[in-house]
Each structure stands twice: as structure tokens, then as C-alpha cells.
Amino acid sequence: MKKKISLIGAGQIGGTLAHLIALKELADVVLFDVAEGLAKGKALDIAQSSGVSGFNSSIIGTNNYEDIKNSDVIIITAGVPRKPGMSRDDLLGINLKIIKQVAEGIKTNSPNSFVICITNPLDVIVMALQKYSKLSTSNIVGMAGILDTSRFKYFLSQELKVPINKINSLVLGGHGDTMVPTFNHTIVDGKSLSQLVKDKKISAEKLDTIIDRTRKGGAEIVKFLKTGSAFYAPAASGVEMAESYIKNLKKTLPCAAYLNGEYNIKGLYVGVPVVIGKNGVEKVLEIELNEEEKNNFKISVQAVEELFESARKIDPDLSN
Question: Which of the listed residues 1, 133, 157, 173 has the most CB atoms within 10 Å of its CB?
């Protein structure tokens, strides 16, 4: 029996997700969008490439929530993308309304799915989604850390002239200007980033520039595109999470997950390393952070808390 992945939102990320899932033959795909015709057109276009690419996944487009029934995985990209000069937080009011409708659609039609949220501002939207839908916290997770880590690894590989597959890293915390790259957990060709700074292979100043560029990675792309935001890398990151769940790979991935006392945080979604397998978020890994990382992590968590407070003011339902 083939698995089923429903994609809520047929914009640039939604369309790219559908294509990647089909190419991997990971599941049959339902592409949903409230804008009639958008999902149908993209689904038909991708389906017509199957004769060339040779994949055997079915792809349908719809604007009816009933078509997402009994999905194994749901990936949400619905929402308004950033425009130049707009922060992720400016999107909050608009995207909260959208996510409330999405939560209703999932609760009614596919309450047992594993749900991956990509809509910004990520950490707060994923928290709102869980509160609105009342789904289990281990089945709702946010995609951000994988993308931030991938950006960080790419910039490092370019600077150090090292193939990207020789770099392992973890970026924690909120998805935004307070994300926390971890030096001791970033290993380049067998050596930690801290060691490379000591060995003068990379200067602390250069590293600060790379961290800053990682934090503003999305904004840099928005500035170039002018009428949209990143979609290839976010979609690839979402697929990695879905694949780990569907194939029970139990990969350790940095995701926005619900913390229940881990890292001394309770009742909040924060970017941390988690194990994703057939039961959703199966484990939150508590890794050793140095003092600077701990402080940066605290600042990041605080930023998420403050933004969630703003969300509560916009919609008092989130206080329940």
C-alpha cells in the first residue's frame, strides 16, 4: 500500500515538494490550495513529467480538504511569503488566520498524520497549529533547523574549500535572527569548528560573517527574488523529515519540536536535535552546549516566547 503525503499550499515550496516526493517515489501526493486551479495545474504539470522521469507516484491537485483524508504525512507551506523589507514576524497576523483554517481541515480529515510545518514565522506558527488542531505534540514538528544547518554548511564549504558532505553541523534555536550555530558540534573533515579557529584555518571574524549570513539567509534570497522567498532548499529539508518518518530511518535532525522539560524549557516549540521515526518525534536529544551557546540559546528561546505573546494578543484562542 503506497503512502500518502498531502501538501497544504501549492505555491513555490508546495510545487517543489510535490516534484521531489514524486521523483523519490516516496508516496502518492495530494497538492491542496484554496486558490482553485493552482494545485490542479501544478499537479498536472508534474504528473506529465512522469513519462520522462519514470516515476510511478500519483499526483492530484485539489481545493477540497476532504481529499487529504488518511494522509500519512501532511506538509504545510500555506501562507503569505515575505516581501523585501518584511520580517518573518510581520507575517504573523496574516499567517495565523490561514493556519487556523488549515488546523481545522487537518483535525477533521486526517488527525493521525505526521504534520510538518514550514510556514513562517515558523516557531510560533507550529505552536499555534498544535494548539488549534489539538494533535499530539510528537506528531507536529516545524522545519527550520535542517534548512539553517544546510545554509551554514554551504557557506562553510565555500569558505574552507571543503566538500559539503565532509561537514556535519547543527543549528539550534528559533528560525530567525537568533538561531544558534554550534561550534563544537560542527565537524569539518574530522575537526571541530572551534579547533579550526584555534588552528587559524578560519578567523573568528570570518566565522561571524558566515553566521550572520546564515541568519539572514532567507532575507538575502528575498532581496534577490523581490517577489517571493526561498523554496528549493526549504522543500528539500521538508522531504528529508517526511522520508525519515515514512521509512522509519530514525535520523537525528534539527527541528522545531515541543519541549517538555528538556533544556529546562517546558511547553514551547524550539529548534533542537530530534530523532524522527515511524512514531513521529521519538526522542529529543539534549546535547552539551558551552556557556556562549547556552546564552545564545536562551536569547533565541526568549525571542520565540515574545513572539508567541504577540500571537496570543492577535488571537486570544491561543491562550486556551
Answer: 173
Is there a catalytic annotation at residue 175?
A: yes
CA distances from 41 to 63, 161, 264 (A): 12, 41, 47
| CA-wise closest residue to 44 among 62, 20, 60 | 60
pLDDT at 88: 65
Rounded distance between C-alpha atoms, residue 111 and residue 267, angstroms: 21
pLDDT of amino acid 127: 97
Catalytic residue, from 175, 214, 215, 259: name it. 175
Q: Is the pTM for the entire model greater than 0.70? A: yes
Q: For the chain, what is the HEC assignment? A: CCCEEEEECCCHHHHHHHHHHHHHCCCEEEEECCCCCHHHHHHHHHHCCHHHHCCCCCEEEECCHHHHCCCCEEEECCCCCCCCCCCHHHHHHHHHHHHHHHHHHHHHHCCCCEEEECCCCHHHHHHHHHHHHCCCHHHEEECCHHHHHHHHHHHHHHHHCCCHHHEECCEECCCCCCCEECCCCCEECCEEHHHHHHCCCCCHHHHHHHHHHHHCHHHHHHHHHCCCCCCHHHHHHHHHHHHHHHCCCCEEEEEEEEEECHHHCEEEEEEEEEEEECCEEEEECCCCCCHHHHHHHHHHHHHHHHHHHHHHHHCHHHHC
Q: Which residues of the chain have pLDDT under 70?
A: 88
What is the per-residue pLDDT across 141-172, written as a single tens digit (0 to 9) for each? 999 999 999 999 999 999 999 999 999 999 99
Collect all residues with Cβ–Cβ distance below 8 Å to 304 and sequence separation of at least 6. Answer: 123, 124, 174, 268, 269, 270
Find cell 504534520 and name the residue.
Answer: 115
Residue 83: predicted pLDDT = 75
Give whole-number Cα distances, 43 to 4, 164, 284, in Å: 15, 32, 35
